[in-house]
Amino acid sequence: MNKSNSVRRFSPPKQQQQHLNDSTTAMIWIQKPPVAVRSLQSTTQEISLLKLIFDGFSILLVFSPWLIFKYLVKPIRRSFLCSDLNLYHPKPIKAAVPTWLLAIYAVVLPVIIILCSEGVRWYYLVSKRAAPMIYKIQICSTIYNISQWIGNLYISLVVFACAHGVNSFLTNVGKVSVGRLRPHFIPSCFDKFDYTDFCIDPNRWISNYTCIGESSTVLKEKDGAYDIRQSFPSGHASTAFCGLMFLALYIHKVWRYRNIGLFAYVLEMNCFAFAAYISITRVTDHRHHPTDVLSGAILGSVIAIIAFRYMIKSFKQSILSQFGDEQRNEAVGNDNML
């Protein structure tokens, strides 16, 4: 009897029991939100044939004037003071970074890294069975499917090539229109190495002059005579910063979601260090004035940033669609801040 009374005494009322059951059910429902299931269906992106035609025409449009300004347009003949000691530097014997090595650092190396990076990312997506991006292009009545790896490579390399073409074009426009004399101008132009042998009146401006080699029939000597009047801006500096800054931005944007720690940032710093080293050697080799190198570095960096932003807008969906919603929103926000 006492036992049943004790049980009855501590049993909750039926209404209170129902309330506790409803609260427990609601709490359990809140603690277990629905999990979004990611679809493995591929995403398609159509590419117009007209776009490919205009891409090729744009590259041709930026490289053709560069060749014209480089080899056919003569730089202006700029007056100078014979007392300007900045023009008496000795002739350069050997470049610390020759043109072929510059091409490897600023063109070949970025292309190889972009190729390997896109290949590794494609392999990662295939191994994870993530939803791929398929590019579709219609030629006449036939539709061709292009894999994500080929499509992203096309966008990256075409934008990279166009950036180098625009950079070379603007660099050579500055060279022939400004006509700044190189630091070794007087020894190379007049074969005079001493100030007292060449300069009679220190205050006299020299405007009418003809450099050694201008009348030569040898193309190399003739080009060299014109080249000593094309100091501004530095072509090595603009090319180095255009190619390597583009590569640094690519690494920062594409590699930062990978589990590689500080390796990506070390590569970015090395890109900037290589570009700075190449630019500094142009001053130490007596081929450019410091302001020439600074202007070339600014020009190349600005073109690289503009080209990279265009590339990101062209294929950022195919890059960011492989990550979660939180990372995608963060990446898009950072892209807007770039």
TrEMBL record:
Gene3D superfamilies: Phosphatidic acid phosphatase type 2/haloperoxidase (1.20.144.10). One of its GO terms (cellular component) is plasma membrane. Residues 155-308 form the Phosphatidic acid phosphatase type 2/haloperoxidase domain. The chain crosses the membrane at residues 48-69, 100-125, 146-166, 232-250, 262-281, 293-312. GO terms for molecular function: phosphatidate phosphatase activity. It is a multi-pass membrane protein. Keywords: Membrane, Transmembrane, Transmembrane helix. SUPFAM superfamilies: Acid phosphatase/Vanadium-dependent haloperoxidase (SSF48317). One of its GO terms (biological process) is phospholipid dephosphorylation. Its main location: membrane. InterPro entries: PAP-like, PAP2/HPO, PAP2/HPO_sf. It is found in: Membrane. Belongs to the PA-phosphatase related phosphoesterase family. PANTHER family: LIPID PHOSPHATE PHOSPHATASE (PTHR10165), PHOSPHOLIPID PHOSPHATASE HOMOLOG 1.2 HOMOLOG (PTHR10165:SF103). This is Phosphatidic acid phosphatase type 2/haloperoxidase domain-containing protein. The lineage of its organism: Eukaryota, Metazoa, Spiralia, Gnathifera, Rotifera.
